[in-house]
Structures are given as C-alpha cells and as structure tokens.
C-alpha cells in the first residue's frame, strides 16, 4: 500500500515493476507479497501494523531475502538516500523477531531503473545519520544513508554481486 500523492504511488508501482523485470531477466526466483492488509493475519497486522516487504527472493543454498523496493532520489547536497525512521523501525522489529533478512532496494527514473541501490535494514541503523528533519514525502524523521553504504547493482549484474560485496566488507 502506497502512502502519498498519486504521482508518488505511480512512481512506486513503476519501481516495483522494473525490479520484477530485473529479477525475471536474471532468472531469480521470487514471490511478490501482496500489500493488501487483508492478505495477512490480524495478529501480524497488529504486531507490525501491516508493514511488510514487497518481495521474497529465494536464494539457493542460503534461504530467503525479503526486499522492500522504494522509489528514492539521492539528496544532492549530502549524497544520501533518506530512509523513513518509522519504516526502518518496523522492519527492524520484524527482522529481529523472526530472524529474517530484510533489505531495501532503491532506484528511480533518473538512473533509468538501471541501477539498484541495496542496503540491509540493520545497516540503515548502523551507518545512517538520524535526523529530526521531516521527510518531504512522509513528513517523518529519517535516516540519511550515504550512497557508499549501499551495494550498487546494475541492470546487467546478477544477485551474485550483492553477496560478493557482503563478504568482502
């Protein structure tokens, strides 16, 4: 479920579509997680206020990665991406409670959806700079996460790049 203007909803839907195309082009098995609140139990919705990632990616010999796909632009003056604190806190709680791997994958039309910026939820808290400033989109405080803290995966790269970067850091 998208919050925001009609234009933001369209951008979010387009970003998810482009991400799905990237997964399909690389033969990555996944499940899209329907965002309707009725598709999850009332207990889940109560515990996590309905917050859930967009995709579940199945990684052979590893397990699952849950991915929340976002349309985000880089903040020009600081070279950071803003990640809403409320979102990050809900994902962190979900991740800890159920021992899940949850990542953000960000992109936008400025890069033609040809680059995906990946970061695990835990790194948002570790590396992101918390700010009380309000996000223009949600009106909430956010974490400013430097672009260097993301793993950049081009349209031509496979998911292997994500894992090779994880193990080289």
User: Tell me, what's the shape?
Assistant: globular
Question: By helix and strand content, what is the structural category?
Answer: alpha+beta
Distance between the termini: 34 Å
CATH class wording: Alpha Beta
Encode the helix/strand succession as letters. HEHEEEHEEHEEEH
In short:
By secondary structure, this protein is α+β, with helices and mostly antiparallel strands. Helix content is 34%, strand content 27%. It is built from 5 helices and 9 strands.
Question: Mind explaining what this structure looks like?
Answer:
With 169 residues, the protein is an alpha+beta fold. The chain has a single domain, classed as Trna Endonuclease, Chain: A, domain 1 (3-Layer(aba) Sandwich). The chain is built from five helices and nine strands; from the N terminus they run αβαβββαββαβββα. The strands form two sheets. The chain has a six-stranded mixed sheet, sandwiched between helices. It has a three-stranded antiparallel sheet with strand order 4-8-7. The longest helix has 20 residues. It is globular. The protein starts with 5 loop residues before the first helix and ends with a helix.
Question: Which labels suit this protein?
Answer:
3-stranded antiparallel sheet, 34% helix, alpha+beta, 6-stranded mixed sheet, Trna Endonuclease, Chain: A, domain 1, 9 strands
């Amino acid at each position: 479920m998208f919050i925001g203007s009609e234009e933001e909803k369209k951008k979010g839907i387009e970003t998810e579509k482009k991400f799905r195309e990237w997964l399909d082009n690389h033969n990555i098995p996944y499940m899209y997680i329907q965002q309707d609140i009725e598709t999850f139990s009332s207990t889940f919705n109560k515990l996590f206020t309905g917050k859930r990632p967009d995709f579940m990616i199945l990684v052979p010999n590893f397990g699952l990665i849950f991915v929340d796909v976002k349309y985000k632009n880089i903040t020009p003056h600081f070279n950071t991406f803003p990640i809403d604190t409320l979102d990050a806190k809900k994902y962190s709680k979900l991740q800890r409670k159920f021992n899940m791997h949850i990542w953000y994958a960000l992109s936008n039309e400025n890069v033609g959806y040809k680059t995906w910026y990946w970061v695990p939820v835990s790194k948002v808290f570790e590396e992101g700079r918390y700010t009380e400033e309000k996000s223009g989109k949600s009106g909430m405080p956010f974490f400013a996460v430097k672009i260097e803290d993301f793993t950049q995966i081009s349209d031509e790269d496979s998911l292997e790049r994500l894992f090779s970067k994880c193990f080289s850091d």
